[in-house]
UniProtKB/TrEMBL annotation:
Keywords: Membrane, Transmembrane, Transmembrane helix. The chain crosses the membrane at residues 43-65, 96-118. The gene is Ifitm2. Its main location: membrane. The keyword Membrane applies. It is found in: Membrane. This is IFM2 protein. It comes from Struthidea cinerea. GO terms for cellular component: plasma membrane. Belongs to the CD225/Dispanin family. InterPro entries: CD225/Dispanin_fam (IPR007593), IFITM_antiviral_protein (IPR051517). It comes from the Eukaryota. It holds the Pfam family CD225.
């Protein structure tokens, strides 16, 4: 690997004795780093979860963590904002999954009642009718 790097480098040239380093043009390299992207706080998602799917107050809890994440982000504490934001995201996902399961169960029960599979949920009478 070291030989490959030596082959890629331009050949070394010795400066003539009559040329000094001060006479040569100088170059400056400036490296510009992009600032880190601020972490997401999931505030809008938490707001909708609070309004439309607040099962066991998970949406409200996600909203609180989202606001905390936004506060940390404004203060410049990106690690704290990332922590609060990921907690809000997990709470939003949990509330969403629970709400989807509830909707599927309700739709299934209503469909079974309408189709007549589930009647009065009473056992059939035994004996002469």
């Amino acid at each position: 690997r070291a030989r490959e790097m030596q082959q890629q480098l331009p050949p070394y040239e010795v400066l003539p004795a009559d040329v000094s380093m001060e006479e040569l043009p100088r170059s400056t390299t400036v490296l510009v780093e992009e600032p880190p992207r601020p972490p997401r706080d999931h505030l809008v998602w938490s707001l909708f979860t609070t309004l439309y799917g607040n099962f066991c107050c998970l949406g409200l809890l996600a909203f609180v963590f989202s606001v905390k994440s936004r506060d940390r982000k404004v203060l410049g504490d990106y690690s704290g904002a990332l922590s609060y934001g990921s907690t809000a995201k997990c709470l939003n996902i949990t509330a969403l999954v629970i709400n989807i399961v509830i909707v599927v169960i309700v739709v299934t029960v209503v469909a079974l009642v309408v189709s007549g599979v589930i009647r009065n949920m009473q056992p059939p009478p035994y004996g002469p009718t």
